[in-house]
C-alpha cells in the first residue's frame, strides 16, 4: 500500500513547459474536432458578438471624426482698431501663441477683411458702393488645440486673450462652442452607456454558450476527476480551447467587418448621393482592431474559466 502511495505517475513525452503545452494544445484541438458542431456554434456566437461591438465602434469612431472636424470651426477672433506695424504684429502674435491652447494665429488685414466681406455679398456688390476698407477692423484669427475647444476652456482662453495689449474686442462664437460641447458630451455618454450594455450582453451570451460546450462533456470531466487528474490538467485543454474559440471568432469578425467596409465603399455610389471615401469615412484604427482581437481571446478564456467552476472544484 505504501509503495502504491509513493508510486509516481508516468511522465508525459517531452515533459516540461513545452511538452505540456504541446500536449494541452493537441488535446484542445482534438476536443474541437470531436465536438465540431458545438464549437462552431460557440465560434459563431463570439463572431457575432465581436462583430456587433466592432460595428458600434466603427460608427462611434466616425462620429467622433465628424465632431472633431466640426470642432475646427471653434475659432477666436481678436480685433484691434488700427493697423499694426510689422514689429508690433510680431510681438502680438508671440504673445497670443504663448497663451496655452493656441494652435495657429492668422493675421487678417483691413483689405483682406473687406475682400472676404465682398465675396459674401456676391451678386449684391452695389451695397458696398462708397464704402472703404477702413470700415472693417484688422484682426487675428486664432485656431485652438483640440483640448481647448470646449466651452469652459474657450472662456478661460478668451479671458487671457483680452489681457493682451492692443486687443480691443474678442469674438468666439459662444453659442456654437456651447452646442459643440453639449453634442460631444452627449456622444461620449451615449457611447459609454451603449458600449457597456453591449459588452455585458456579449459576456453573458458567450459565457452561456461556452457553458453548453462544457456541459456536453461533463461526463469526461467527471471521469478525469475520478481517476485523480489534477485541476490544472483538467482545465488547461478547455481554457486553451476557449482561447482558440475566442481568437477564431474575433479574427472572423474582423475579416467580415473589413470585407463589409470595403464592399460598402465600392458600391456606395450606387445608392448614396455622396462618396463615403471622399466624405472621410474611416476604418477602425489598428489599435482598436488589436483590442477587439484581444477582447475575443479574453471572452473565450473567461467564458471557459467561469463555466468550468461548475464541474471542477477550485
UniProtKB/TrEMBL annotation:
Compartments (UniProt record): Cell inner membrane
Membrane topology: Multi-pass membrane protein
Keyword Phosphoprotein: no
Chief subcellular location: membrane
All residue ranges annotated as the FtsX extracellular domain in the record: 74-170
Domain ABC3 transporter permease C-terminal: 194-312
Pfam families linked to this entry: FtsX, FtsX_ECD
InterPro entries per record: ABC3_permease_C (IPR003838), FtsX (IPR004513), FtsX_ECD (IPR040690), FtsX_proteobact-type (IPR047590)
Membrane-spanning parts: 36-61, 186-209, 246-265, 277-302
Keywords: Cell cycle, Cell division, Cell inner membrane, Cell membrane, Membrane, Transmembrane, Transmembrane helix
Complex formation: Forms a membrane-associated complex with FtsE.
Database matches in PANTHER family: CELL DIVISION PROTEIN FTSX
UniProt family annotation: Belongs to the ABC-4 integral membrane protein family. FtsX subfamily.
Protein name, entry field: Cell division protein FtsX
Origin species: Geomobilimonas luticola
Gene from which the chain derives: ftsX
